[in-house]
Design goal:
It holds the Pfam family Sulfotransfer_3. Keywords: Transferase. The chain contains 17 helices and 5 strands. By secondary structure, the protein is of the alpha/beta class.
Length: 296
C-alpha cells in the first residue's frame, strides 16, 4: 500500500487544528501534505451528506481513493507523516478505517468550549457567504438541515457532542495512543502543548517553533458578494481549484478572505447560556473520560 501515515489530528473543527498544522509543518522531522485537510477516511460519510449550499463543491476537494491519498505523501521517506482532517472526529467510521490502515497510528484530538466552537463554525460559514440565517435561527433549523442531508459542518449542535467521539477513539486505539488537548491549552501555553505533541510523536521536542499568526479566523464579511461568489465553494471556485495549484491558490484565497473579513460577530448571551445548558451533560461525560476539570 505504500507509505503509512503515522499520526492523525482528527478534530474538532474550529478548535486549533489549522494552527497546529502550521506549527508542525515547521518541524524538520515531520511531513504534512501541502493540502491541509484530505478527509480521505471520512469520505464514505461525507459523500452521503452534500445537500447544504456549497457542500458538493467541498466534497470535490476531498480525497476518495487510496492512490490519490498516498500521492500526497510523496517525498516523505524517513519522516513522521501526519494527516490533519477535522471531519474524522465526528464521523465515527473514520476511526475504524484509520485503525485498519495503520493499527499503530497515533491520534491527536483538539477540543474547544462547546458554545464557542459551535458559534465559530457558524461564523465560518457566514464569512464565506454560505450561511444566510442568524445564529439562533440556524440552531433552530438544524434538525431540518440534518434530515435534508446537510454536511456535518452545518450541524452546529450535533457535531459538538464530544464525549461519544472521544470515547470512540479511546476504545479503538487505546489511551496510550490518543492525546486530547484543549484549544485553551494551545492559546495559553503553546510551547508546552507543542513540546508534549513532539514527545508523543517521537520527534525532537526541543525544536523551536516560530510564532504563527492566527489562522482560519472567521468574521462577518465586508462584502457578501465576495464571500458568496469568490470565497464560497461553488462552480467557479471549484474550477479555479482544479487549474490553480494549492500552493498558489491557498495564499491568494487566504489574502482575499483576510481582506474581506470584518469585525467578529458576537454571540447573544442568552443563546450562549442556552448552549451551556444544552452541552452540560456532554461536558460532564467528557470530564469523566479525560479525568480533568474543563475550564468551560
Amino acid at each position: 500500500m505504500g507509505r503509512v501515515t503515522d499520526f492523525f489530528v482528527v478534530g474538532a473543527p474550529k478548535s486549533g487544528t489549522t494552527s497546529l498544522y502550521f506549527y508542525l509543518k515547521q518541524h524538520p522531522q515531520i511531513f504534512l501534505p501541502s493540502k491541509k485537510e484530505l478527509h480521505y477516511f471520512s469520505f464514505p460519510e461525507l459523500k452521503q451528506r452534500e445537500s447544504g449550499p456549497g457542500d458538493k463543491y467541498v466534497l470535490r476537494s476531498c480525497i476518495e481513493t487510496v492512490e490519490e491519498y498516498l500521492e500526497h505523501y510523496k517525498g516523505s521517506d524517513g519522516l513522521q507523516c501526519g494527516d490533519i482532517s477535522p471531519s474524522y472526529l465526528f464521523h465515527s467510521g473514520s476511526a475504524l478505517r484509520i485503525k485498519e490502515f495503520n493499527p499503530s497510528a497515533k491520534i491527536i484530538i483538539l477540543l474547544r468550549n462547546h458554545a464557542e466552537k459551535a458559534f465559530s463554525q457558524y461564523s465560518h460559514l457566514r464569512g464565506v457567504g454560505r450561511e444566510a440565517l442568524g445564529f439562533k435561527e440556524a440552531l433552530l433549523a438544524e434538525d431540518e438541515r440534518d434530515k435534508a442531508g446537510y454536511s456535518d459542518f452545518w450541524l452546529y449542535k450535533k457535531s459538538t457532542l464530544y464525549a461519544p467521539c472521544v470515547e470512540n477513539y479511546l476504545d479503538i486505539f487505546g489511551a496510550e495512543s490518543v492525546r486530547v488537548y484543549l484549544f485553551d491549552d494551545l492559546v495559553n501555553d503553546r510551547k508546552k502543548v507543542l513540546t508534549e505533541v513532539c514527545g508523543f510523536l517521537g520527534v525532537d521536542s526541543s525544536f523551536h517553533f516560530l510564532s504563527e499568526d492566527a489562522h482560519n479566523v472567521s468574521g462577518k464579511p465586508r462584502s457578501y458578494f465576495v464571500a458568496k461568489y469568490i470565497l464560497a465553494p461553488n462552480l467557479f471556485t471549484s474550477f479555479l481549484r482544479r487549474i490553480i495549484p494549492s500552493s498558489v491558490g491557498a495564499p491568494i484565497r487566504s489574502f482575499i478572505k483576510g481582506f474581506n473579513t470584518g469585525g467578529k460577530e458576537k454571540m447573544c448571551p442568552v443563546v450562549r447560556d442556552e448552549l451551556y445548558d444544552l452541552f452540560a451533560e456532554d461536558r460532564l461525560e467528557l470530564e469523566s473520560i479525560l479525568k480533568r476539570k474543563l475550564p468551560w
